[in-house]
Amino acid sequence: MGMTAEDVRTIALSLPDSSEKPAWGMPTFRVGGKVFASLADDDASIGVKCPKEDRAELIAAEPEKFFLREGHDDNYAWLRVRLAAVADAGELRSILADSWRQAAPKRLAAAHPELGGG
What we know:
By secondary structure, this protein is α+β, with helices and mostly antiparallel strands.
């Protein structure tokens, strides 16, 4: 079935101290002033923070779900996720929470161990 842009918005804004702000003509989701997710202009995918060293493994394991936007993501710690390939809200929440932890101030992330950090 896959997830939708509205699912992304609902889950992203449910994370502590998150907000939505347009940037580059797209909705972005931020914590502590840093972007942790952005919706693509077609609402079919999202960009999330991902350590560069983890990207190739994720893409190799699930190429229908994870990808890089060539020429844009090459030098940044970001990964793209096709929403149609995300199984359910739990998986989407896990992906967004992981990205949120990478962008959140350390003290805030530590205060929310239920999100897998701290």
